[in-house]
């Protein structure tokens, strides 16, 4: 019985360490995303900057380069959708 408690205690300790590591990893990812969003807000907030940028792989990319990258990776067909349709769509 004590051996089972010891195994359970060891497993609980390992699980707790993994949880702490996962929380740190998520915190790191959150900081990276926040930095990307901050840079996007700076870029898109400037009225002198042209608006032909997309986010590709988490980075602002010129739209023509982004589309070229996407098209070159396509195996067969590409279906395009617009998240914010309006009257010009």
The neighbouring-strand order within the major sheet is 1-2
Largest sheet: 2 strands, antiparallel
The rounded Rg comes to 23 Å
How many domains make up the 3D coordinates? Answer: 1
Number of helices: 2
Distance between the termini: 69 Å
Global shape: elongated
Look at the structure and give the mean pLDDT. Answer: 79
Provide an overview of this structure:
By secondary structure, the chain is mainly alpha-helical. It has one domain (2-73). It is built from two helices and two strands. It starts with a helix and ends in a 16-residue tail after the last helix. The model has no long low-confidence stretch (mean pLDDT 79).
Give a short synopsis of this structure:
The protein is mainly alpha-helical and 89 residues long. The protein has helices at 2-45, 63-73; strands spanning 53-56, 59-62.
Set down the secondary structure blueprint.
Blueprint: H1 2-45, E1 53-56, E2 59-62, H2 63-73
Antiparallel strand pairs: 1-2
Features:
89 residues; two-stranded antiparallel ribbon; 62% helix
């Amino acid at each position: 019985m004590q051996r089972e408690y010891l195994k359970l205690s060891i497993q609980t300790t390992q699980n707790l360490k993994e949880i702490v590591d996962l929380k740190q990893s998520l915190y790191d990812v959150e900081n990276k995303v926040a930095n990307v969003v901050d840079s996007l807000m700076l870029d898109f907030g400037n009225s002198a900057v042209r608006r032909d940028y997309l986010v590709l792989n988490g980075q602002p990319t010129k739209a023509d380069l982004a589309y070229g990258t996407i098209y070159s990776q396509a195996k067969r067909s590409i279906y395009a959708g617009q998240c914010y349709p309006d009257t010009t769509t």
